[in-house]
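Is this the right way to post structure tokens for a design question? Let me know if I should format differently. Anyway, here goes:
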């Protein structure tokens, strides 16, 4: 453990429930083990890596060969896309999905809650001023228990209206991506980004038999992943999110990425991302605050 890890444990550790550890080369990870669940969170990027209620299969997917390194994104978990989603609107050289997932965040509070859950709050510490020249920092609060709540907040402390795009790029564990159904998006318009971008309308449940990369617009209702193989559903509730992204790289892209752990690693995951993206970005006036909130829960089929 390096000096920073010891200091974090002194300031924010919770005996028997939350501890900081050095995962190598000074990369600090929070381990949570409370009465409801286990979880792990990288301090860099305020990146939740794993979460699962006790007695359940893991709910959040992490690549078995994911690398934990300073300044590098992590394959799996819940990367934070902020302050934009996808490519920057005008500067192609800027970081894809923003810079938040690869920079330092500060832990500013932890708490053992009365219901046995654990709360952790982060504030972004290393804002790229060239790419984000605004007085508009981000905070992330997680409540980790039998359900997982995450709230990403942006406060415009400057004088001018700004545009914010954000997403929780969540990788969910599934038994077999080709045998699940994603419900709750029937009738929604979406941008299909596989091949030439095209606008389409969802008909029925989403099933996966090839690469999927879609942004669903004007969408705020619950989304449910039905997984017969694990005999469960994962429910995604959200507030202040007007887009949902569904992504699975499928065979060729997975093989080309090299960090899924195996050629068929794509079958064990699906991304269902709560977001404000593309035409659903947020205009944030001076003094206003925007909070993207989600809650993930598991139910038996």
């Amino acid at each position: 453990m390096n000096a920073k890890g010891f200091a974090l444990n002194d300031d924010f550790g919770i005996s028997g429930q939350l501890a900081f550890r050095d995962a190598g080369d000074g990369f600090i990870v929070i381990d949570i083990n409370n009465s409801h669940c286990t979880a792990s969170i990288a301090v860099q990027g305020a990146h939740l890596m794993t979460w699962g209620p006790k007695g359940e299969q893991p709910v959040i997917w992490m690549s078995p060969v994911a690398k934990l390194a300073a300044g590098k994104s992590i394959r799996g978990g819940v990367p934070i896309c902020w302050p934009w989603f996808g490519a920057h609107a005008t500067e192609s050289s800027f970081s894809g999905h923003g810079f938040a997932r690869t920079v330092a965040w500060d832990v500013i509070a932890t708490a053992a809650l009365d219901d046995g859950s654990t709360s952790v709050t982060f504030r972004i510490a290393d804002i790229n001023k060239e790419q984000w020249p605004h007085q508009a920092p981000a905070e992330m609060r997680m409540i980790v228990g039998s359900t997982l709540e995450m709230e990403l907040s942006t406060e415009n402390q400057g004088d001018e209206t700004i545009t914010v795009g954000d997403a929780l790029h969540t990788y969910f564990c599934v038994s077999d991506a080709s045998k699940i159904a994603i419900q709750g998006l029937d009738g929604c318009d979406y941008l299909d980004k596989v091949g030439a971008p095209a606008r389409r309308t969802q008909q029925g449940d989403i099933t996966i038999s090839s690469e999927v990369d879609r942004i669903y617009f004007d969408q705020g209702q619950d989304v449910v992943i039905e997984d017969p193989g694990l005999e469960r559903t994962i429910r995604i509730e959200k507030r202040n999110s007007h887009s949902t992204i569904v992504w699975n790289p499928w065979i060729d892209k997975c093989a080309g990425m090299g960090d899924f752990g195996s050629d068929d690693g794509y079958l064990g995951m699906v991304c269902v991302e709560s977001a404000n993206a593309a035409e659903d970005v947020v205009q944030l006036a001076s003094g206003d605050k925007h909070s993207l909130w989600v809650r993930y829960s598991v139910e038996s089929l």
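Format looks fine. Someone answered above. Worth noting: The mean pLDDT is 96. The helical segments are 3-12, 250-257.
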